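Re: weekly structure request thread

Next one in the queue (96 aa):
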Amino acid sequence: MRAAKSPIAFLIALFLGLPGPPASRAQEIFEAIRAGDIVKVKALVEKDPRQIEARNARQSTPLQAAVDVNSEPIARYLIEKGSDIQALDGNQMSCL
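Done, posted below.
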């Protein structure tokens, strides 16, 4: 994706988690994580590896979401796929 050219476009890109996956697909991974559906999480990540970089409205990553819902299998999978364990959410908190 191209870099944003205006401050508004930059803020929209930041809010949407760009250059990660499109917002609708990003939302899918968070729904799958909340449901504990590791099969769907794997399918989404295999289809688009950028899913591990997605951000939700709180600027949490999928790994942070998996930790929030205590899903160790999903968290382990995301780490194996290269999820940043030190990524910070909108409150400057990591999953550690």
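Residues 16-80 form a domain with the Serine Threonine Protein Phosphatase 5, Tetratricopeptide repeat fold (CATH 1.25.40.20). The chain has five helices and no strands.
Next request, please.
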